[in-house]
Amino acid sequence: MSTPLDVLLGRQSVKFVQAPGPTDAQLDLILQAALRAPDHGGVKPWRFVLVRGADVPALVDVGVRAGIAAGTPLPQPKVDNARKWLSRVPLVIALGCRPDPSGRIPEHESLLAVGAAAMNMLNAAHALGFGAFWSTGIGTYLDGVGEALGFDPLDERFMGYLAIGTPIEPPAPVRRPDWRDHVSEWHAPAPA
């Protein structure tokens, strides 16, 4: 039997997914997990937009239009690859952040809270047997994309997409870095 730690250590990004996606009950659990993320100041900065089924491939068109409007059209191979990828994805969760409007909590803390919520969703999807992938492609950083998805451009920041579904192929094992290469230990300076 897997422990919760086994589930966390076994998670990896799975880009290529297909139907079936999460049921409504499973999606409810995934979204509940999202809102368990840390939230300094209780500002509840999370904003999510669900895109399902036949609406998913239309996300490419939103990115294409935004690229043209910005004068930086997306390269056709990138557009073609995105269309092929999204043609099978059953669920996309667009991620947004609404930082504290009072400015009391620094914006970066709200962005981190949304990032933590996204990670909770990725872990929950994995624990439920789905594959999931966080993408900042398809025009995430172009003006107009977030707005087209319903995010308010004046006080919300669009942060990308989570694609969730059943893995098309079993994920190949991934060699993980050694944590020791990324960790140091601090010691207080000796008293003078």
Automatic annotation (TrEMBL):
CDD domains per UniProt: YdjA-like
Bound cofactor: record note: Binds 1 FMN per subunit.
InterPro entries: NAD(P)H_nitroreductase (IPR052530), Nitroreductase (IPR029479), Nitroreductase-like (IPR000415), YdjA-like (IPR026021)
Top-level lineage group: Bacteria
Binding site for FMN: 11-13, 36, 40, 134-136
Entry coiled-coil feature ranges: none
Keyword annotations from UniProtKB, A to Z: Flavoprotein, FMN, NAD, NADP, Oxidoreductase
Top EC class, one word: oxidoreductase
GO MF, one annotated term: oxidoreductase activity
Keyword Transcription regulation: no
Family named by the database record: Belongs to the nitroreductase family.
UniProt protein name: Putative NAD(P)H nitroreductase
Organism: Castellaniella defragrans
